[in-house]
Amino acid sequence: MAGRHFDEWQVGDRLTHEIRRTVTEADNLFFTVMTHNPQPLHLDVEAAKESEFGQILVNGTYTFSLMVGLSVGDTTLGTLVANLGYDKLVMPKPVFIGDTLHATSEVIGLRESKSRPDTGIVTFLHEAVNQRGEVVCRCERSALLKKSG
């Protein structure tokens, strides 16, 4: 188990997750088709060429999901009871096929659970960063975690 328990976190803890992922055409295509998203910017090369981006734009919900997934091994793996919510989701820069993303996480809040004394709520600020050092996705995630012992 790589994740930390609630009582092992402190506000201000910051992690740069080692796993990186280069987004492929197949990643974007499969995710977009699996989620029944017909947006031509994600699926139609010719339509994407005519857009302001000039190329296929990676599905933003894929980018969001990848960002959270890259963080799980270091944050909540084996200690998570439930994700309670995602807030303030923004995508300040586009992601394109071939971009390599990594994620960072910072603890911005800790709160004991009122209804479950063996758990607590950790609020993470997650960011996905591309190979140029640009933040391409950011959100706050509230996770209900087990306490140790």
Automatic annotation (TrEMBL):
Residues 11-123 form the MaoC-like domain. It comes from the Bacteria. This is MaoC family dehydratase. PANTHER family: BETA-METHYLMALYL-COA DEHYDRATASE, MONOAMINE OXIDASE-RELATED. InterPro entries: HotDog_dom_sf, MaoC-like_dom, MCH/BMMD. CDD domains: FkbR2 (cd03451). Gene3D superfamilies: Hotdog Thioesterase.
